[in-house]
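Before we proceed, please read the two lines closing this message. Report back on whether the structure tokens fit the sequence:
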Amino acid sequence: MSLLTDFAENALADFVRGQGITLPTDWHIGLLSAASDASVTELAGTGYARIAVARSLAAWAGTQGAGTTLPSTGTSHGTSNNAAVDWGAAGSAWGTASHIGLFDAASGGECWMIQELQAPIVIGASDPVAIEAGAIAYTLGLVGGMSDYLANKLIDLLFRGQAYTWPASTYAALYTTAPSNAGGGTEVAGGSYARVAIASSMVAWSGTQGAGTTAASTGTGGRISNNAAINYPAPTAAWGAVSHEGLRDASTLGNLLFWGALASPKTVSAGAGAPTHAAGSMKITFA
């Protein structure tokens, strides 16, 4: 199982808040004796060093399967190393590795992701240390409402060196039948319905430290939410039974980014009051 650290959660949360994201040319794979999303403890010893793996299509698999080198088009929301990561023979006892860490520097720096090994590895002097191709695997948002489109873009951005720019605004949309990670669903149409623009900014979306905040993210839960109410137009015809909401990258058509079920489905009739979401009620969580 792979896990975003607090640092990575905050970086991705603020990416959605329009702040861009700074990524290394190479990821550096380290061996850890202890790890959580808040802190890691790295092994040490003679000959130990992190191993650089390029952020490239060749080095990390696409979401369509292990070993692939084309841009991601799959539905797995995951990537893995395309070649073995080999530390050679340990020059001394390095200790017991229980996790793998993904760092943004050869030494120091920040750990972005951790992965628990299937079984701890006790590394003594002269022991060979290697992890086979496909064994370092990371997944983003397979459950929880991140679309396949967005997962593919983020996997290729984070791991595979492919540019992706977050839209200047995203658009809240209402559905009468559920979308899925693949998209689809039945969006409301007619009766003065229109998607609602939300600026990709620290003013419009809270930081991970709590609802209503506008500073850079410093929290530990990976969650952001809308800082102002989301007000749809007043319906001039029946919209039907609205059950789900999505966040899209354009005012019409475009791509689904996130989706989820409403806490309470609502039948919207002609002449009814304008549907609204209170501030803090649309939540996006990275974990």
Observations:
- The chain has a mean pLDDT of 96.
- Residues 45 and 85 are 18 Å apart (CA to CA).
